[in-house]
Amino acid sequence: MAATRDELRKLGWSEGDNLRVQERWSGDDLARIEADAAELILLEPDVILVTGGRVVSIVQKLTRTIPIVFVGVSDPFGRGLVTSLARPQGNLTGIALAEYSVVTKQVEILKEIAPRVTSVGLMFNPDNPSAAFHRAQFEAAAAALALASVVLPVRQAADIEQSIDTFARKARGGIVFPSDLTILAHRSLVTAALTKHRVPAIFSDEAYTSAGALVAYTADRTEMFRRVASYVARLLRGEAVADLPVVQPTRYKLIINLSAAKGLGIEVPLALQAQADEVIE
Q1: How far, in Å, are 15, 56, 262 from residue 72 at the CA level?
Q2: What is the mean pLDDT of each run of 10 residues along the chain (281 residues)?
């Protein structure tokens, strides 16, 4: 949000001058998300900026007239949120979280960093509307690399630890973690369980590598929030949602934690380290 505000200032929109911002930080509580969204809509804003696959559906349900700009929503066309990526009708547009090949890339990186892996799991919250998108891409990617694929649905902290424990009993397994707010909130637990069971994993958020996880391949979220400011500014000037196509991230980051790799008994290939945007010693 700091990046969005900074970019809005550059585009001529400053709080206390010609811009008023009302924020709600709703977390993973769906009832609170709906209450916060309803409260904001009553304020009749000119634009609503949202992030998260579950959040955008709730806000769109509550208003079909106020322009909504999203950041970080997977497969908005496939989910029926927009009728067209190039020229979205209705009141919704923004920046998708990932292009279709990103899960494939994550499976490939996991196999490269842990070549002994013969089976791969996908841990996700089935209540996340993006789950079907991630699962389809994951299963196709695993099959292409002749890896056995296992789905690991979880909804709460206890599920996460039990699922990793059960999966770890399978020989030579690794796990892919797509973007999910529920699991992200428990990243310390996730990292500790993976370390305990010596299971390599790749994540869709760099916050995991900061918490001690092995590797992340993710869209540059700060850049996404910076880019979305131009859409907010154009809507504030009165442009139509249909003139603002849904776009994909333009920059992805590969982050490798060598300390985590050492704890897992993994020697990260030098070629992969050279490709990384950040290597954590």
Answers
A1: 24, 10, 32
A2: 96 95 89 96 97 90 97 87 93 85 93 96 90 89 96 94 93 91 91 95 93 94 95 97 94 95 95 96 90
Q: Which domains does the chain have, with CATH numbers?
A: 2-98+220-250 (3.40.50.2300), 102-218+253-280 (3.40.50.2300)
Task: Find out whether 192 and 162 touch, Cβ atoms under 8 Å.
Answer: no
Report the alpha-carbon angle 272-276-279, nearest 5: 105
Whole-angstrom distance, CA of residue 25 vs CA of residue 5: 16
Please tell me the distance from the alpha carbon of residue 76 to that of residue 86, in angstroms, as a whole number. 12
CA atoms of 15 and 5, how far apart (whole Å): 9
Please state, in angstroms and rounded to a whole number, the distance separating the CA atoms of residues 25 and 68: 16
- Quote the pTM value: 0.85
Asked whether the beta carbons of 49 and 228 are under 8 A apart, the reply is yes
